Amino acid sequence: MQIVVSEELIEQFRARTASASTSVPLAVLELDGRDVLRVTGIAEVLGPAPQVVYSRGPVPGYDRVEADFHVQSGIPAELQVIPGLQHLFSRQKGVLESDLLQGKRLVIVGMGSVGSVCAVELVKSGFMQFTLVDFDRLELTNIARHACGLKDLGRYKTRAVADLLLDKNPYCTVTSCDWDLTQHPEELEAVVAAADLVLVATDNNHTRFAVNRHAVTHGKPVIFGRARKRAVGGDVLRVRPGETPCYQCIFGAFYRNVPEETSQPVSAYGGTLTMAAEPGLALDIDFISLMMVKLAIQEMVRDTGSTLNQTLPEDLAAPLYLWANRREAGVGFADWTPLSQSALEMTILRWYGVDYPRDPDCPACGDFVSAALAGRGLDEIREEERSLFRGSAD
Questions:
Q1: CB atoms closer than 10 angstroms to residue 14
Q2: pLDDT string in tens for the chain (394-residue length)
Q3: Please, is 124 exposed, middle or buried when counting C-beta atoms within 10 Å of its C-beta (0-12, 13-18, 19+)?
Q4: 71 with 184, same domain?
Q5: Could you count the other beta carbons within 10 Å of the beta carbon of residue 234?
Q6: Same domain, 21 and 102
Q7: pTM summary value
Q8: Would you call 334 exposed, middle or buried from its count of C-beta atoms within 10 A (0-12, 13-18, 19+)?
């Protein structure tokens, strides 16, 4: 039998029993097939629940405790303590220094099939501070592609994902914003302004352009991930305001009409839910999520002494990355060379970096107003008039 208990609980319990003359029972709230006991709190005996009795003595480390605990029924018990923060990421040492990420505030906009996977992978990498933005609730049609499961049906996606993050790292902090960002522009701007990095995993251009404008205004790096129609492929864009093209520079023109997976309202359970209008495999979508996470980590250890900076900055120098899952007529990539026939041409299941230039006349990050005036032979206008033109590109 194994008993799982938090490190904090051990400290609380030892403090409580330090002056006790007899053993003090712990309340065991869950017994799983007489295999694992999960101790979730200190209390007096709770009815018929089995007791775990602490025999006072030194605790020889935080990963295993032998002989200090036993179950009164006589079943041999071994205690495993949930480790402290310093132990959670011990297997990343030498590859990724998690202390470089702990003070970074991540904002993830969109908690669907892309955003939920991003959040889980980011907390596993060592990020500690999250703000999750989405007003949708988890529906049955989401489950196959979402990080959360059936037990979370009907919950706000932000809160369901928050529990996943805390289950991976109980020391992280998660703020849930359960509102429609298109209806709360000021709140969205405040969230973006407070972030170290923003990830956008929404399924429409309106929200992406909105986040892009705020990120450019406040100089915040942002990563956009999109799945194309039927998840046949997708793209990931990293924006560094003032250095690289923003979302408006690229997707406001050349890629504006690329077919992508979108959502539409449908009726279900007597109400309205958001349901994917196009089919797509979770496996195909996860490639997009994982590339977003890869770029997020690299962005947050940029200009540090991380071992990840030895070669990856050169490998991941492009702002835009393209991915194809399959060649499908009428959707995309149908004319690409089959993967099995070429190592030199563009094929499916490979990432391609695209060095795309900034648009000096971009409405979001460039001088769109001056360019428009110059094209019409007009003089410079006042700043208050110029501001009327900003942010109207979508």
A1: 15
A2: 455 555 665 666 566 656 655 555 444 434 444 444 455 444 433 334 444 444 333 333 333 333 344 444 444 445 555 556 767 787 887 788 778 898 999 999 999 999 999 999 999 999 999 999 999 999 999 999 999 999 999 999 999 999 999 888 888 999 999 999 999 999 999 999 999 999 999 999 999 999 999 999 999 999 999 999 999 999 999 999 999 999 999 988 544 444 455 554 433 333 344 444 468 999 999 999 999 999 999 999 998 989 899 999 999 999 999 999 999 998 889 999 999 987 788 999 999 999 999 999 999 999 865 555 555 555 555 555 555 544 444 4
A3: middle
A4: no
A5: 28
A6: no
A7: 0.76
A8: exposed
Amino acid identity of residue 64, one-letter, is R
Which structural domain range is residue 382 located in? Answer: 360-394
In the numeric block, which tokens belong to residue 313? 């900055």
Cβ-in-10-Å burial (0-12, 13-18, 19+) of 342 comes to: exposed
Residue type, 59: V
Q: Which residues of 355-373 are buried (b: 16+ CB within 10 A; e: fewer)?
A: ebebbeebbbbbebbeeeb
Query: Which residue bears the tokens 């933005």?
Result: 133
Q: How far apart are CA 324 and CA 154, in angstroms?
A: 33
Count structural domains, the chain. Answer: 3
**Residue length, the chain?**
394
The answer to whether the CB of 119 falls within 8 A of the CB of 159 is no
